[in-house]
Queue: 4 jobs
Job 1
Amino acid sequence: MGVAIEDAIKQFQSLMEQVDEPLKNTFKNIHQGYPIETLVRFLKARDRNVAKAHKMLIDCLQWRIQNEIDHTLAKPIIPIDLYRAVRDSQLVGLSGYSKEGLPVIAIGVGLSTFDKASGHYYVQSHIQMNEYRDCVILPSATKKHGRHIDTCLKVLDMTGLKLSALNQIKLLSAISTIDDSNYPEKTETYYIVNVPYVFSACWKVVKPLLQERTRRKIQVLQGCGSNELLKIMDYGSLPHFCRKEGSGSSRHYGNGNADDCFSLDHAFHQQLYNYIKQQALLMEPNPLTKQDSVHVDVPEPSLDDAKIAKTIETEFHKFENQNGLKVTSD
C-alpha cells in the first residue's frame, strides 16, 4: 500500500512545489482551496503510491492545459436546440442532495442513446457537468454544511438497457476514461437501480475484474431502489425514476418535466446552461451564434478498463445469440 498517508502527502506536496507556474495555476482550479484533500484523492486512486499519484496528477494538469479545460465552462453548446438534443439523448442530472449534503447525480444509462449529436458534444457536455460540479455545486455544498464536501453520489438507472448500447461503448469508454484519469475519487457510492436480467448476468462476470476500491463503491439495489435510498436522502432528492416501482426513466413522470432531472427544463440544467452563457459573455462580449464542438483529447484507457469493456461486449453478444433475446428491463 506504500508509505503512511501523512508521509505520502508531504512527499507529494514537495513534488508539486517544483512544478512550473502553468501547472500550478490549473491545479488551483482543481483543488478550489483544498490542495491537501485533492492530493489525497490522487493518492487513493494510486493506492498511496506517491510516484504514480504524482504522474497521474501531472498528466491531468497537462491534459487540462492542452484542452483548455479551465475555460470549458465558457464554451456553450449552441444553438439551444442542439443542446436540448444532447440533453434528450445523454440522460444526466442533479436530483438533489443526500442528508449529509452530497450531490445526488442521476444517470439514465439504459435510455441514453447518444445519437442526436456528434460524440464530441457529448464529451464536452460531460466535462462541463464535471467542472460545474467541482467549481460550483461542491463549493456551495461545502459552504452550506461548514465542512469540505468533494464527492457525490450517483444513481444509475438501467431501465431500457438493450443490446444497441454496444453501439456506444466506445463513447462511454472515452467518458469513463476521462473521469478515471482526471476526476478520480469524486464519487462516493454508485447505486444501480431498475436492473434488467442482462445486467445482473453481466455484473457477475464484470465484478471480479474491478479493483476492490471500486467494487466497494457499487451497490446494486432491488427494484427502483427507493427503500434503500430514502435512508440516505429525502424523498424530494430521489431521482424521478426511483419514486415509484416500475416507473423507470419516464420522461413525463410526475408534474410534467418539473421532476425530470434529465430535462433541459429542470432547474439544474437551466442554472448550468445560464452559467455557461454568462461565463462566455465575460470572456467574449460579442453575442454567440454558432460554435463547433470542442475536441478533447481522450487519455488511453488502462488495460484493466479495456478488458472490462471487452468483457461487457462479449457478455452482451452472448445474450444476443441466445434465442434472439431482447435485452430490456420491465
Job 2
Amino acid sequence: MEALYTQGIWVAERLQQRSTGREDIWQVVTHIGDPKAAFLLVFPFTYFFSKRAGVAVLWVAAVSEWLNLVFKWMLFGERPFWWIGESRLFLQNQPRVQQFSSTCETGPGSPSGHAMVTAAVWWVVLSSLGSFLYARSRSVVLSSAPYLFYLVLLVSVGLSRIFILAHFPHQVVAGSITGFVLGVVLNRRVPEGRPLSFFFGISVGLLLAALALHAGLQQLGIDLSWSIALAKKWCSRAEWIRLDTVPFSSLTRDCGALLGLGLAQYWKPGGWSLPWAPRALSLAFSSMGLYHVHRLPLPVRPELLFYGLFFVKFVIVPQIVMILVPGLVHLFTNKRKKD
C-alpha cells in the first residue's frame, strides 16, 4: 500500500501543477460530487421531471452513502493530506501540493464517498434520461449522450478529489465502480408506494446497524476516531474542519432523508399532479427553500444536539420538495384558474 499511496501523491502533485489557475473549477466540480448535493440539488431537479426517478435518487443516495460509511469504517483508508506528514517518507523531497477548503474531510478515505454516491445517483438520472430519449427518438446516438456525460462526470469528480488531496486514485476508482453497481441494483428496487412503517424500519434499522457496528469495532479495540484526529493534526487551517464531514453526520443525513421520504409519501400518496409550468415554479421555490434549510446554522455543542438537528433537517427536505411547495403551487394555480 505504501507504494500505491506514494504514487498517488505524485499524481496529485502533477495534477495540481498542470491545473495552475483552475483551482476554483476543480472545487466547483468536487462540490457537485458532494453527497449532500444529491439530496439538495439532484433530488429536486429530478423529482419535478419524473416522480419515480426523484424518489429513486433520494433512495439510492441514502443507501449508497450509508454503505460508503460502513466500507470506510471497515477499510481504514488513509487520505493524502494527512498521509504525506504521517508517512514521513517525504522529509527530503516534499511534494509541491496545497490544501483547499474542501480538503480536510474527517472520515477514512476508502472508498471515495463523492465518487461512490455520484456514480450511484447519476446512474439513476442519466439512465432514465437515456431511456426517455430512446423511447421518443429511437436514436441510439442521441440516447447514448447521457451515458457519455455520465463517464465524463465520474472522471471529473474523481480527478477533483485527487486534485484537492482528499483521495488517492485507487480510492476514487473503487468508489466509482461500487457506486455504479449500487446504482444499477438499487434503481430496480425503488420503494414507491411503500407504507410509512417500511421507511421507519429502514431508517431506524440503518441507524442501529451502524451504531452496533461502531460499538462492536470499539469493543475490539479499534478507535474509529483515528481519522478525525489525523485530519485535525494535518489540516492547514482549523476552520476547514467541519462537523458535517464527520461520519455520524452522513449517517444522520441518510436516516433522516429516508424517514422524510416515507413521511412525504404518507401525507400525499402519489404526490401532486402538476402541469409543466407549475412544476418549473415548484422547482424554483423548492430550490430556494432547500438553500435556506441548508444554510441554517446548527449548534456544534453538544454534538448529540447537532446530530439530532441534522437528522431533522434532512427529514424536512422531502417534505419541502414533495409536499409543501408543490401543494402550495397547486393551491394557488387552481385558485387562479377558478377565478
Job 3
Amino acid sequence: MTFVSQIRGTRKAQEFGDKQIISSYSSRMRSQMVDPRNGSSVTKFVLVGFEQSSPSTRALFFALFLALYSLAMAMNGLVIFITWTDPSINSPMYFFLGHLSFLDVCFINTTIPQMLIHLVIKNHSLSFASCLTQMYLVFGVGEAECILLAFMAYDRYVAICHPLSYAQIMSWHVCMRLVSTAWFFGLISGILLDYMTFRGPFCRDNHIENFFCEAPIVITLSCGDPQFSLKMIFADAIVVLLSPVVLIVISYARILASILSRASSSGRGKTFSTCTSHLTVVTFFYTSAMFSYVNPRSTHGPDKDKPFSLLYTIITPMCNPIIYSFRNKEMKGAMVRALGRTSLAQAESV
C-alpha cells in the first residue's frame, strides 16, 4: 500500500506540474495575444534586413554602404556649401539644387546610419516610437523631394521658354514660397500617412523584412484589416508621385517644343544639356519610389524590396550631386574654387 500510494502521489505531482506548465504557457500566450480592441502588444520591431547574411557578407556590406554614405554626405554637403555661399551661382536653379541636397542629407540620415549599426551589432530591434518617427521622416522628406523636383522642372521651363521674364517670374520671394510649399505638404502628408500606418493594433509578428520601417510592410503586421490603410497610402502615392510627374512632363514637353523650334543645332544641344541632369535624377528617384509605394504588394518580396529601397535611400541621394556637378560647368568651377579656398586656408593655418 505504501508503494502504491507513492506511485499515486508521484502521478498527482506530475499532473500538477503539467497543469502548472500549461497554465504558465497559456498566461504567456494571453499576455502576447492582446485583443485588438484593447491595445497593442508589440512594443518593438525587429529589422531583419541583412540579418540572415553571413558575417563576411555583412562586413562587405558595411564597408560598401559606409563608403557610399560618406560619399553622399560629402558631395551633398559640398553642394549645400557652394550654393549657399558662392555668389557666382546665385540663381534660382542653384537655390533649388542646394535645397535638394539638403533634403537628400536629411533622407539618408533617417535610414542609413541605423542600417550600418545593425550590420555590426546583433541587436536589430527598434522601438515602436523610433519606428514611427523614422517612417514619418521618410514620408515627409521623401514627399517634399518629389514636389521640389517638380518645381525644379518648372524653373527650367521658365528659364528656357520665357527667358526675358525669368527674373520676374522666378523671384526670390517665389522661390522661397515654392520650397516652403514642398516642405509643408511633405510634413503634413507625413502625419497622415504615419497615422494610417499605425492606426491599428499590432499583436502579430514584429519582424520587418527590410533594413528600415517601410510603411507597406509594417501595415501587413497589424492585427486589423490592413486593406484600408494600404489603399490610403496607395492613393497618397498616386497623388504625391504622379501629380509632380504630370507637371514635369508638361514642363519638358514645352521645353522640347521650344528647343526644336530653334534653328541652331548647337543652341539646341546647349539648351537641352541643362535639363538632362534633372531628368536623370527624376528617373532614378521616381522609378524606385513608384515601385515601392504604387505597385501592388502581391508583386513584392524581400528580395525585390531591398534593392529598390537601397536605390532611393542611398544610391539616388549619392548620385544627385555627382550628376549635377559632372554635367554643369558652373558647378564644377564653383567646386574647384571651394576646394581651392579650403586648401589655401589649411596652408595659411599651418
Job 4
Amino acid sequence: MAAGGGTKAILAALCANLSIAAAKFVAWAFSGSSSMLAEAVHSLADSGNQALLLLGGKRAKRAATKEHPFGYGRERYVYAFLVSIVLFTVGGLFAVYEGYHKIEDPHEIDHWYWPVGVLVFAIIAETFSFRTAIKESNEVRGGQSWWQFIRRAKAPELPVVLLEDLGALVGLILALFGVSIALATGDGVWDGVGTVCIGVLLLIIAVILAVETKSLLLGEGASDADVAAIGAALVDGDAVTRVIHLKTLYLGPDELLVAAKIAVQHDDTAAEVARAIDAAEARVREAVPVARMIYLEPDIARAKTDT
C-alpha cells in the first residue's frame, strides 16, 4: 500500500493473531478461564480487523469511474472505521460482559499451565508483531511523537495496527495478572476482574480509532507545512504574483486535491496564463508529491481582500 500503508505490519499482525487466537481457545477449553476466552475473542476480532484493512487497501486501488470521479481512495478510511466498530463490539463489549459474568459466578481455573503457557507465548508473538509495526511507522512518522503520528497520519493502517498491537500486549499482561492472582488466591473473581480490565482497554482504543477515522472520513486538509509549501510553490513572483485563497482535501491517503485562486498579471495573454498555470502545477507536484489533483483559477491581482 502507498502512503505508509504498512502491508508488512498488517500481515505480521494477522499471522500472529490467528496463531494466538487458536492457542487461546485451546487454553480456554482446558482451563475455563474467562480472561482466556476474552483474549481469544480479542485475537479473533483483531484477525478480522487486519483482513478488513487488507481488503480496504485493495478496493481503494480501483480506478475512478463516472459515478466516483475522484476514485476510491477513501475506502481505506471506511474499512478502518469498521475496524474500530468491530474492536468496540466484538472485543470490548464481549470482554466486559464475560468479565462481569465471571465476577458474578466465579470458579477456580483448571489446568493452570494452559492459560499461563499460552499467555507467555502470546506475549512473545505480539511483541514481534508490535516491533514490526513500530519499525514501519518509524519510516514514515518523521519527527512526530507517537501521539502526533496517530492523530495526523493520513494512511489509517499503521495507526490502527499500532493501537491494536499495543492493546493486545497490555491486554495479555492484564490477563496474565488476573489469572496469576486467581491461581494464587484460589478466587476466580480475579480472573473476571482481569477480563473486565481488558474490555475497558479495548473500548478506549476503539473510541480513539473511531474518532480519528471519522475525521478522515469527513475529509481532512493538508498539514500546515504542506499548505505553506504549496502556497510557496504556486507563486513565482512573475506570472503568478500571489495566492488569493487555497483549499486542500485528501481524497485518499496518497492523493491530495488542491484548489486555489491565483493572481496573475492583468496584461498577460490567455496563452501566458495557461503556461503560468502549467508551471505552477508542476512546482506544486514537485514540492508536495501527493498533490496529484490540482485546480487553479486565475484572477487579476487586486487588493489583499480578494476572495
